[in-house]
Specification:
407 residues; alpha+beta; 9-stranded antiparallel sheet; 4-stranded parallel sheet; 19 strands; globular
């Protein structure tokens, strides 16, 4: 891939993604696949006058090794130096960049029971820090190609060719053209206009139906509003948390979901794929489910904690989207969730509550925003999905017709 194009992508992530401010620290999490591009992103952050940029490298085979050989007690312990890093996050409120490139099957064979138990034990410790920085910092999730990921998508190509093809797909769907920052400005304006229309309807409930058997009703929080594209941190800094992004999303009312929903794409969760699954909800909670592939992992996901069985997000994405139109199944939630409507199990977003800046997290959660240690999106959109909005004035307004916006 041409370096000039990659520089534009790096600029997009630093300037439009996290929007680094002078004097801010930046923490980047990346796999080992594209060190030269990571260096470009680091340089762009410094050009924006970042005080310090720290890169934390990860490697899936090493994660599997740690889980295999460390005791559960060791995996579940937050050591002093890790605790001090969380304290540093709270004190400095740095930008966070996540560059995804992992193998969709890279953690196959890992001891899921041991991993889940360690995460459950660590979460109550980390949660106190997470709640203190919630909505205060800028963050951006973007992607770069990994060899294993590229070969998953393009198995008939040589590794170098597959990586190049995946670069092309990432850049195209991320709107990296002659002027990507201008393209994102226009895209954000379109998403904002759609959110404004949705919010004008005073929606009480969304009703999802599709020929695959999906028939689900999800209740809305009266104080909640749809958001999409760029958003503002509590420090008043505008940023784009996801590159790419095609969604208008909202946090639904915890405890108000009835019916069954069928996944339309595989879900990559903790380095393994869950496929061919459905979930049935009663009183807002997942009470029954089945997966053709990796049902035990789906069960782990849904039962991670009390909140993981409830919905934290409803996201509207037209089937006629750049990612869907690419014809690729990315096996990566960042992309696949932006190819179709999706729901999320687990944590909801407090910043979808109107006036959230003047409320505490606890107040937002009392209004109905779900709380959980997880937030996992799964795709439900199809070419024939219809979504109707039942509004407070008693009217029913079509939102989606045959997979796309009805307005």
């Amino acid at each position: 891939m041409k370096k000039t194009v990659l520089h534009k992508y790096a600029q997009l992530i630093a300037r439009c993604g996290v929007n680094v401010q002078k004097g801010q620290e930046v923490f980047i999490q990346a796999d080992l696949d594209q060190p030269e591009f990571v260096k470009m992103v680091v340089e762009e952050c410094y050009k924006l006058k970042a005080k310090k940029v720290v890169v934390d490298w990860s490697y899936q085979p090493l994660q599997k090794t740690h889980v295999r050989y460390r005791s559960l007690a060791t995996l579940s312990t937050l050591d002093d130096y890790e605790d001090m890093r969380w304290q540093h996050y709270v004190k400095t409120i740095p930008c966070r960049i996540y560059l995804l490139s992992e193998d969709p099957d890279g953690l196959a064979g890992i001891d899921q029971e041991k991993l889940a138990k360690s995460q459950q034990k660590l979460y109550p410790i980390i949660k106190g820090y997470r709640d203190q920085i919630e909505n205060k910092y800028q963050w951006c999730i973007a992607a770069v190609p990994g060899v294993a990921w590229a070969k998953k998508l393009f198995p008939k190509l040589r590794a170098s060719q597959a990586v190049e093809k995946l670069w092309e797909a990432i850049l195209q769907t991320s709107r990296v053209d002659d002027d990507p920052i201008a393209a994102w400005k226009q895209h954000n304006e379109d998403l904002l206009a759609r959110c404004n229309y949705l919010n004008s309807l005073a929606i009480r409930e969304l009703h999802y139906t599709a020929s695959n058997g999906t028939d689900l009703r999800v209740g809305m929080i009266p104080e909640a509003e749809f958001k999409g594209g760029g958003e503002y941190s509590l420090q008043g800094i505008y940023f784009n948390p996801n590159i790419p992004s095609e969604e208008c999303f909202i946090s639904p009312m915890r405890g108000k979901a009835e019916g069954i929903v069928y996944a339309s794409k595989p879900l990559s969760y903790q380095g393994q794929l869950i496929d061919g699954f459905w979930i049935r909800f009663e009183n807002g909670k997942a009470v029954e489910w089945h997966a053709a592939q990796n049902e035990s992992l789906l069960t782990k996901l849904i039962t991670m904690d009390e909140g993981s069985a409830y919905l934290g997000e409803c996201a509207l994405v037209p089937y006629d989207s750049p990612i869907q139109n690419s014809g690729l199944l990315f096996y990566n939630t960042l992309f696949d969730e932006n190819a179709a409507c999706h729901l999320a199990l687990g944590m909801g977003f407090a910043d979808t509550i109107r006036g959230y800046a003047d409320k505490t997290l606890e107040e937002c959660r009392k209004l109905g925003v779900n709380d959980s240690m997880i937030h996992e999106d799964f795709m439900i959109g199809t070419a024939d999905m219809n979504i109707d909005a039942l509004c407070e004035d008693g009217k029913t307004v079509p939102i989606f017709k045959n997979g796309n916006w009805a307005f």
